[in-house]
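To whoever is on call:

I kicked off a structure prediction for a single chain this morning and the downstream step that reads the tokens threw a length-mismatch warning. I double-checked the sequence; it's 111 residues and nothing unusual in it as far as I can see. Pasting both halves so you can look.
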Amino acid sequence: QVQLVESGGGLVQAGGSLRLSCAASGIIVSRSDMRWNRQAPGKQRESVATITYAGATTYADSVKGRFTISRDDSKRAVYLQMNSLKPEDTAVYYCNTGRYSGQGTQVTVSS
């Protein structure tokens, strides 16, 4: 059974940083494409960052240069380091692989 559990969200001022974590079970992180998505109120869920099984990373244009996705295969974890946060980054952030998604963690950026 695949389970993804996100943590690390919270309230931060604009310009601040947060590090999100995704603990994965039931999958081999190093053999999976892992993604961070987010959904803001009243908006569709959007892809934020992806790390492929080969280690290649891609980012949404809106977060390039500010967010970094990484993984720790030994801990079965995926991370999203978010720097220079903006109010428009406020959303629920989800860890995703294939058809599986976690319950999300709220990130709120105050201006």
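Update from on-call: the warning came from a stale cache, not from the record. Cleared it. Sanity check on the structure: The CA atoms of residues 89 and 109 lie 7 Å apart.
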